[in-house]
Amino acid sequence: MTDTPLTKSCGDCGMCCKVLHISELNKDAGVWCGHFKKGGGCGNYEARPSACRTFTCLWLTSDKLGPEWRPEKAGFLMYAKDDGKRLNVVVDPGKPAAWKREPYYSRLKQMSQRAYDGYELMICVGDRRIVMFPSEDVDLGVLNTDHKVVSGYVERDGAQVPFAMVLSDAE
Ligand code: SF4
Ligand code: SF4
């Protein structure tokens, strides 16, 4: 376990102010928050909602991700969900192929090795969902936000075969 590096700061990144859905602000994913000022950060800092106060992307806390992983530069941000069982990679819809570039793609593939242990690496491009496995990327297409995804491995002819599917609408 590593300590949180103190050398990183958001600066004028603001990627989370664009790509995330923030219900308290009625802000859709993929559009800039009206409070964000380029070069000036949050214009609503004191009154920003709890979703903004509590959000921390993976780059900010990881000492294993260099400056090229700064979300503004990478074109996507990453954060853990479901008690760390899922890593969401949320891509700037203005750069939908950003996650496929190097050095990102190869490193994401390495991270996806954890799928063997039940973890899920989910690429989110707008409402499109792609589950990444070490051997393949399963593109589930555009999903309703109420849809749930399940993924993992099944045994077929003695081999472990990855699967990802839309389970159902949430009740
Ligand atoms: S995406 Fe990460 S580095 Fe960028 S502003 Fe949000 S928390 Fe800070
Ligand atoms: S309120 Fe501030 S921190 Fe929250 S999304 Fe808007 S600009 Fe970003």
Q: What is the topology?
A:
Elements: H1 16-19, E1 36-37, E2 41-42, H2 50-54, H3 58-61, H4 71-74, E3 76-81, E4 86-91, H5 104-111, E5 120-125, E6 128-132, E7 137-142, E8 147-156, E9 159-169
The protein binds iron/sulfur cluster (SF4) (2 copies).
Overview of the molecule:
- This protein is an alpha+beta fold.
- The chain has five helices and nine strands.
- The strands form three sheets. The chain has a five-stranded mixed beta sheet. A two-stranded antiparallel sheet has the order 1-2. A two-stranded antiparallel sheet has the order 8-9.
- The longest helix is centred in the middle third of the chain and has 8 residues, at 104-111.
- It binds iron/sulfur cluster (SF4) (2 copies).
Number of strands: 9
Question: How much strand?
Answer: 25-35%
The dominant shape is: globular
String of helices and strands = HEEHHHEEHEEEEE
Q: Tell me roughly what share of residues is in helical segments.
A: 10-25%
Arithmetic mean of pLDDT:
92
Poorly predicted runs are: 1-5
- Give the domain tally: 2
Short description:
The protein has 171 residues and is an alpha+beta fold. The chain contains five helices and nine strands.
